[in-house]
Amino acid sequence: MEAVNNSSAWTGNELQTDKSWEFNLSPEQQDDLSTALQVIKDRGLPFAEMTRDDFQIPSLSKTIQGLLDELRDGRGIAVLRNVPVDEDKIGDMEKLFWGLCTHMGTAVTQNSEAGLIHCVTDGKLRPKKGSRGLGDPREISLHVDLSDCVALYCLRQAPDDPRSLFASSMNVYNEILKHHPEYLPRLYEGFIWSRVEPRESETLSSNFKIPAYSTAGGRVTCRFHPGWIRDGMERAGETLSEEEEEIFAFIRELAYANAFPLHLRKGDIVFCNNYLVFHGRDQHGLIDDEDKKRVLLRIWMDLPDVRPFSDEGSIRYGAIRHGNMGWTAAEILSGDYKTPHRRREDGVPEVL
């Protein structure tokens, strides 16, 4: 096993020093987004029916390519700033966000409601089902989401301005390799994961293990979420061993020690490659005023040519493809999502 020697293995201090992962929209680009949104509104097109051809933003093509390059072959995190925001028109903001993301990848459902856009808030816009605690003011520990990429669009920050936290899972890998290489075989073996409202034909936990770290094509991939793993093991009647608890604690310690704090601002969209970056958030205060509550929109995306996998079915899709999760807009609109995800004989999702 070799250390990761590229820009994806960063520390918080390094990210603070080099801001090339930040992208700022120009007035012309802002106008392009607003014009594209108005075209969609004039057509009366729901966001789920929108394609990249419907949302023309020519002045952003170079910026979008820069975002994708940073996500796939750079640090795994990128922030787009100065995106237009109208807090009073959430539906319009969903269309703008969706339209932009169609130029980057393919959105997939992210909860038991088969939702394609999730409103992260503790206010009235919070989904009634499938929320998994999203938007709760409590601290959100560093973790990965289940798609290739997560995009978070800040419409309004909380009054006490909580920090969002990001950490390189590749830097964590290097530190494990340096200090506790004996941990890596267990991480490469993987763990079972929990499932959200699986179909009748699906088990409550994955009946196969998903590697926490894996290697293919000379690239290391991370798939680690302690919450999903612990819950999955509990459902299967299992618990972590003492050594596994030590491994989990060491990963947490390393991630937080080298995390990068970011204060999201209105009009920021932060993108994370879930194979390279952990993300989380500090606790923030409860407030009663609906007009001051924190509101973010979230999209989960698959990215084209994201990276090679040693087993794409288990590593890329094993955690997300169950129940109403992991479906594209086209599959929702066609009704294909009503049938269970297709699986191999070992229970791993098929890669079509």
Estimated radius of gyration: 20 Å
- The named CATH superfamily: Clavaminate synthase-like
**What characterizes the major β-sheet?**
7 strands, mixed
- The structure class reads alpha+beta
Termini separation: 31 Å
Global morphology: globular
Low-pLDDT ranges: 129-133
Secondary structure: helix percent: 25-40%
Number of strands: 13
Number of helices: 10
Nearest-integer average pLDDT:
95
Order of helices and strands: HEHHEHEEEEEHHEEHHEEEEHH
What fraction strand? 15-25%
Give a short summary of the structure.
The chain is an alpha+beta fold. The protein has ten helices and 13 strands.
How would you portray this structure in words?
With 352 residues, this protein is an alpha+beta fold. The protein has a single domain (12-338), classed as Clavaminate synthase-like (Double-stranded beta-helix), CATH 3.60.130. It is 29% helix and 17% strand. It has helices spanning 12-17, 27-43, 61-73, 90-102, 169-179, 184-189, 226-235, 242-257, 312-315, 329-334; strands at residues 22-24, 77-81, 106-108, 118-120, 140-143, 149-156, 164-168, 213-216, 219-222, 260-262, 269-273, 277-281, 295-302. The strands form 3 sheets. Strands 1, 2, 3, 4, 6, 11 and 13 form a 7-stranded mixed beta sheet that branches. It is globular and about 55 Å long.
